[in-house]
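User: Assemble these into one structure.

Assistant: Restating your components, then the assembled model:
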Amino acid sequence: MNIGKAAAASGVSAKMIRYYESIGLIPEASRTDAGYRDYSDKDVHRLRFIRRARDLGFSVEKMSELLALWQDRDRASSDVKRIALEHVAELQRKARELQEMSETLAHLAGHCHGDSRPDCPIINELSEETGAEDKREVARPHFGATGLEPGRNRR
Amino acid sequence: MNIGKAAAASGVSAKMIRYYESIGLIPEASRTDAGYRDYSDKDVHRLRFIRRARDLGFSVEKMSELLALWQDRDRASSDVKRIALEHVAELQRKARELQEMSETLAHLAGHCHGDSRPDCPIINELSEETGAEDKREVARPHFGATGLEPGRNRR
DNA sequence: CTTGACCTTACCATTGTGGGAAGGTCTATA
DNA sequence: TATAGACCTTCCCACAATGGTAAGGTCAAG
């Protein structure tokens, strides 16, 4: 079957199938005389595996590991479990980070009148002078509370 | 002060300051005779504003809006609040998606022996044939359902 | 045989950030 | 004063994962 059919059958776009091939995540597809990529059911099976892993937030690199383990019928389940649990920890970390940002901002928004007047704790917080000047009365949950800043080197 | 000092004072890297200038988020800095960018305390203040907004997960585009509102002393606080709450919703959505992926995977890992034997429910789930049966109730965020995939983000 | 749907490769863009090279400048110290 | 080293400048490259588009070839149905 051609790439369009394989894409429809697997849920991975044709674009991404070519991309995965180009980076070596999947082997090069065989070609028809005309140069069209040709996929077997087995290939589609692998693509579905990839789609599911991707839906679970695995990176291409991790998917590569998982594919290798999948193909190795004798690997220990502990190897798979380790990768999975590492990924769970990573997902949790990211989710918590977003959650904390959300809560900080929701808190600020909760103190904002949200009317036609210009005074706004959200803006005040963002523009706050760390030094001397600019003393306001608003309740200010200082940023250090989020635990995000120390490691604000987001990749 | 030069860009290095401004970076240290604001928490925004010199690299990013130049980038923000290049995309028009901040105005072009004045220059010394030698061509060095020169920053005032006001400039640093703006950079700190930007850093804090970044820490709260705002995109450059949203920061641009916030900066405009910040500079407009007569804007209604409702305008700021609206942007903030939209962002809160976005953060919540992303956090929830990550959380769901995490839970699905943790659930699978919980059923994996994690020993030297090869049988592994995690791999089984990923490689399962959809044609056969599909009676799990795991959260699979099908594309289009979450609105996150179009830009599977995580910069 | 034409038409339209599909394939091919090869670029470009996205988002926000870092790395590095090649070359100019500033400053402190020998 | 000369020189080293820390800084600055611009410019280009890279990342992850995905979509878009253009130019051209192919296939199948009418």
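Chain B touches chain A through 63 residues (CB under 8 Å).
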